[in-house]
Design brief:
This protein has 256 residues and is an alpha+beta fold. The chain contains 7 helices and 13 strands. The chain is globular, with a radius of gyration of 19 Å.
């Protein structure tokens, strides 16, 4: 996998956004591979395919590419809120590739892969509606909130300009595949509890450690008044998925 981008393709365009799109998609077609199977390449989707930029020619896994020159921090701008909400509920979200590039030398600095089956309603938030004077007046977009996605699900493909081994990327992707078994509408609680567990920074933790974060989970699920019961339920779910191990007496350990 190379990190140099075909900047010469920008000469035919005046719009900065068009230049970035053409250059990044050409780089992706030349360098990206499928994490869902062993395909060494991805193919561009048909023009104007909503939310999908690439498809795997072997397993048909869909991928969306988001690019920006500054590092991705807490949020990623995405499309319409309602369209994204429906895609999550119906299990139609593509795998997301977040690419950060250096605009001075047109090289890829980082690529992070977020598998399609880790998206939940907790990880998107509404943006303010467009002004009534705007061309798409009252349109409501959304942000993908990266901090609401567990670190496990933010897989490095390129880090600090250095490609990560495809074997390691696929291994990390496979470890998350059990989440695909969950219904999209039930996945949110599981991922939110996992995110809390990861944020503890401990290999071993207690039920009380997670209870301390009950208010955070309550804010993500304001309609649920039985947060502690849901925490216990979701820890059992994470145990069944092979993510955590139950040690007994309210003690757990993250599975390595």
């Amino acid at each position: 996998m190379g990190v140099s981008m075909p900047s010469h393709l920008a000469h035919a365009y005046r719009s900065r956004s068009q230049c970035v799109r053409v250059i990044s998609e050409a780089w992706g077609e030349e360098n990206l591979y499928c994490a869902n199977c062993d395909s060494p390449m991805l193919e561009r989707s048909r023009p104007n395919t909503p939310a999908i930029d690439f498809l795997c020619p072997r397993c048909a896994a869909p991928f969306q590419l988001k690019c920006q020159s500054r590092p991705f921090s807490r949020k990623i701008n995405d499309a319409g809120y309602e369209a994204m909400r429906r895609a999550i509920v119906e299990g139609r979200t593509p795998n997301l590739l977040a690419l950060q590039y250096d605009p001075l030398v047109w090289t890829v600095r980082s690529v992070v892969l977020i598998p399609r089956f880790v998206f939940s309603l907790s990880c998107i938030e509404q943006r303010n509606p467009l002004r009534p004077t705007a061309r798409r007046k009252n349109w409501v977009g959304c942000h993908i909130v990266l901090t609401n996605i567990p670190p496990d699900a933010r897989i490095s493909v390129i880090a600090d300009g250095v490609p990560v081994s495809p074997a390691l990327v696929r291994q990390q992707y496979r470890r998350l595949r059990p989440l695909e078994k969950l219904r999209p509408d039930a996945r949110g609680w599981t991922l939110d509890v996992l995110n809390v567990v990861r944020s503890l920074g401990k290999e071993k933790f207690s039920l009380d450690d997670v209870y301390i974060r009950s208010n955070d989970l309550q804010s993500l699920h304001p309609g649920n008044r039985h947060v502690r019961e849901k925490i216990r339920q979701q820890l059992q779910c994470l145990r069944d998925l092979g993510v955590v191990v139950f040690l007994g007496r309210g003690r757990y350990a993250l599975k390595s």
